[in-house]
Design goal:
- This protein has 800 residues and is of the alpha+beta class.
- The protein starts with 17 loop residues before the first helix and ends with a strand.
- InterPro entries: DUSP-like_sf, Papain-like_cys_pep_sf, Pept_C19_DUSP, Peptidase_C19_UCH, Ub_carboxyl-term_hydrolase, USP, USP_CS, Znf_RING/FYVE/PHD.
- Keywords: Cytoplasm, Cytoskeleton, Endocytosis, Hydrolase, Metal-binding, Protease, Repeat, Thiol protease, Ubl conjugation pathway, Zinc, Zinc-finger.
Length: 800
């Protein structure tokens, strides 16, 4: 991973007092004592003169002083200490806040930031102050480390402020920030994000923008603590569960963030000949290829012979396609896998296949199945189901109370997850062929492995009487977790070679972990992440960042595990190609490659074919108005590297860009189209201004329109791409009835009939929604043919 410096310019400070301090003793004098460190960790540190505690405390950095003083609006023992102790030969003007980790010179009335780039601090002063901050940032450790072992210049070691029971969010965000492909996307592919955010059609949400600011703050090294206020506020807009200050589930928060980012950040694909007349973008979708009957596009009938592995078309197997992703994004590229569920009716032998995408596997720790003894199970299945005490009364009671000390392996839990389960009793499955509830067998298999595998161990058990936390320790591999035993054999899938290729690399290494300390209904979340720069493990406990050993990590009670694919051959390729790209290539012709594809090549095992459709226009050129920062969207590679990439990964037909042609000078066709669009923008703006009103006359009605669509039209008016058809299904159900919880101004707005007719004539879409007032839940005074008969023709109005 690469770190990126911030574009913000800190205030330049020339402080002569700091140089008096760094010439003295060790920067860790006094604060390295275990008792002092313990007081900082447990927030029991207070002012030497009064009882004031954090965050109003400051520590004098004079080596032989290290007094703890307070500074509030009503009193300042820091000022008193400075006035009393500071002399020409003894500098007592530099203070550090152990809570916020800010350093202040009282004499200069200025803040000293050793992590910034543009100030007058010498390298010696920077090292001194960084050592102090990094040590205060660490929690008290049993094994003390020396000054030389303190990671003062390692990027990514940034704590997150707890905003009030937000440790669940901090733990999830730390793991996402340390996912290399995701961090690199926001640091180096950020030139794509403004256009992507528009394409996503979610103008109400700006999580992609705030998440990008968060990732840059975590990796630019300008501050040891980040306060994620804007990020949390944006997530709370989307999901009210995370509003307030109650403790929430870290995994639920993680899923929410991934879902929003996936919707906001699709990959743009401007394919020649596949662009609609209004300039809409075509999305590159990766869906599973399945045979589709002409009568029903959602069901495929197949038979699986008991004596042969060949598949023939009959009516004994129903294949239900997985819900196709409407778009492909950096999130789906990193985290999305596919799971196949196979259910077999034991009465008629009919099988039902269903494939679904997943961002995480939810694995039960103490899952027990009624298994068919004649089946061949994956390895280690028997060890998990026959562990000592699991079936005893005391073992069960201990499990309910969260005191079970039984140890199982992660592979045992995965084997149980993929084992055959008998659906009997209350779990019977309804067979469409038998038209009854029958005993069935269910089995899960992975058909597409994600680049980053996220596994949640379900430690919280919820029952009607009482709930509990499962404290069973699960041994998890730090390296070489092999997922092949839990995957479907796709070697015979002739129609899906790309899908079979996704299972070629099946081994994973651990890089992140979320630990829950405490009991159900309370407790605390902590993240443990392997830094991709120095390859060391760190504990992220809100603002505290402490180095840990692999032995410490292996003993943890894991709640969520993060694994990324490993491939030694891929690593060698990256090393070899990167050396050529960064070397002297003046003798070679160079080509431009999309940074989005280059990001996938750097951090993913299957980057897919080379594509430049991420930034080229439908004419094969570049729209420089849409992409003014085009040079930040491409990577220049030598011809030999480009040829190697093409031979190994292929291309999707997009044209290569030759650097000697000054690649990205602009497309003349796009310039002409932009002139036409600009005229259209001015005309539509003028027309709407003439007919738009804030009130309506007697006998007229308000036409409700999607607020997000209206925002996208305003975006077009200010220079963006044209919006698509009007989509009032944002606030209406398929039958035209209002959705629950829709808000005026956020989900819908009101316009008069002339404005509606204008938009409908230009953009089409619908359906029509009419009210006497701008209130979605008011009675509908009219009935439209559109909502009544589902017709898209012109609306015919009938009075009630």
């Amino acid at each position: 991973m690469r770190s990126k410096t911030s574009e913000r310019t800190p205030v330049q400070v020339d402080c002569p007092h700091i140089h008096k301090i760094i010439k003295k003793d060790s920067p860790l004098a006094k604060i390295e004592s275990s008792s002092f460190k313990k007081q900082i960790t447990n927030s029991s540190l207070h002012c030497d003169i009064c009882e004031t505690r954090a965050p109003k405390l400051w520590i004098c950095l004079h080596n032989r002083c290290r007094a703890v003083v307070c500074h509030t609006s009503s009193k300042s023992h820091m000022r008193n200490h400075f006035d009393k102790e500071n002399r020409d030969d003894s500098c007592h003007s530099i203070f550090v806040n152990p809570h916020t980790l800010k350093i202040l010179c009282h004499a200069c009335s200025s803040e000293l930031n050793p992590f910034g780039d543009n100030n007058f601090l010498t390298s010696e002063a920077r090292t001194y102050l960084k050592t102090v901050i990094r040590y205060l940032q660490m929690k008290r450790n049993k094994s003390q480390i020396s000054i030389d072992q303190i990671p003062i210049d390692v990027p990514g070691l940034v704590g997150l402020k707890n905003l009030g029971n937000t440790c669940y969010a901090n733990a999830a965000l730390q793991c996402l920030s340390n996912t290399p492909a995701l961090a690199d996307f926001f640091n180096y592919c950020d030139a794509y994000i403004p256009q992507i955010l528009y394409i996503s059609k979610h103008p109400n949400y700006k999580l992609g923008e705030y998440f990008g600011q968060f990732v840059k703050a975590m990796w630019n090294g300008t501050s040891p603590i980040f306060v994620p206020v804007q990020l949390m506020n944006e997530i709370r807009k989307y999901n009210e569960v995370f509003r307030g200050h109650g403790q929430q589930d870290s995994m639920e928060f993680l899923r929410c963030v991934l879902d929003i980012l996936h919707e906001e950040l699709p990959y743009p694909q401007f394919m020649p000949g596949k662009v609609s007349k209004n300039g809409e973008c075509i999305y590159m979708n990766q869906t599973i290829s399945t045979s589709t009957s002409s009568n029903n596009s959602h069901n495929v009938c197949e038979t699986i012979s008991s004596t042969s592995s060949t598949t023939t078309k009959t009516s004994t197997t129903d294949r239900i396609q997985r819900r196709q992703s409407t778009r492909n994004s950096i999130i789906s590229q990193i985290f999305q896998g596919t799971l196949e569920s196979r259910i077999k009716c034991l009465h008629c032998k009919k099988e039902y296949l269903k494939e679904e995408n997943f961002y995480d596997l939810q694995i039960q720790i103490d899952k027990k199945f009624k298994l068919k003894s004649s089946e061949k199970f994956p390895e280690n299945l028997s060890s998990s189901s026959s562990s000592s005490g699991s079936g005893s009364v005391m073992g069960s009671l201990a499990g309910w109370l969260g005191m079970n000390s039984r140890v199982v392996r992660l592979q045992d839990c995965l084997s149980s997850f993929c084992a055959i389960e008998n659906l009997t009793g209350e779990d019977k499955y309804r067979c469409d062929k038998c038209e009854s509830l029958n005993d069935c067998q269910k089995r899960l298999r992975i058909t597409r492995l994600p680049e980053t595998l996220c596994i949640q161990l379900k430690r919280f058990r919820y029952e009607s009487c009482f709930s509990s936390k499962i404290a069973t320790h699960v041994q998890f591999p730090m390296e070489d977790l092999d997922m092949r035993p839990y995957c479907k054999d796709l070697s015979n899938e002739k129609g899906n070679p790309e899908l079979a290729d996704t299972l070629n690399i099946t081994k994973y290494d651990l890089y992140g972990l979320i630990h829950h300390r405490g009991v159900l209904g309370g407790g605390h979340y902590i993240a443990y992440v392997k830094n991709p720069i120095d390859k060391n493990w760190y504990e992220y406990d809100d603002t505290f960042v402490t180095r840990k050993s692999e032995a410490d990590i292996s003993r943890l009670e894991a709640f969520v595990l993060f694994y990324h694919k490993k491939g030694s051959e891929k690593d060698r390729e990256r090393t070899e190609m990167s050396s050529k790209i960064n070397g002297d290539s003046t003798a070679e012709t160079c080509y431009f490659i999309s940074r989005l594809w280059f990001n996938r090549w750097q951090f993913m095992t299957a980057p897919g074919p080379i594509t430049n459709y991420d930034f080229i226009c439908p004419h094969g050129g570049v729209n420089t108005r849409r992409y003014p920062n085009i040079h930040n969207m491409v990577v220049k590679v030598p011809f030999s590297v480009y040829t190697t990439f093409v031979n190994k990964y292929g291309t999707d037909g997009s044209l290569p860009f030759h650097s000697a042609d000054n690649a990205i000078s602009g497309c003349t066709f796009c310039e002409q189209e932009e002139k036409i669009l600009e005229q259209r923008r001015r005309k539509e703006d003028e027309d709407i201004r003439k007919i738009d009103t804030n009130s309506i006359k007697r006998g007229e009605y308000w036409f409700l329109i999607s607020a997000p669509w209206l925002l996208s039209w305003h975006y077009f008016k200010s220079g963006g791409s044209p919006p698509g058809p009007i989509d009032n299904y944002h606030f209406l159900n398929e039958d035209g009835s209002p959705k629950v919880g829709m808000e005026r101004g956020i989900n819908y707005r009101g316009i008069n009939e002339r404005v509606w007719s204008y938009f409908e004539h230009v953009y089409g879409g619908g359906p029509v929604c009419v009210r006497n007032a701008i209130d979605l839940y008011a009675p509908n005074p009219l009935i439209s043919d559109y909502t009544k008969h589902g017709k898209s023709s012109k609306t015919k109005w009938i009075k009630k």
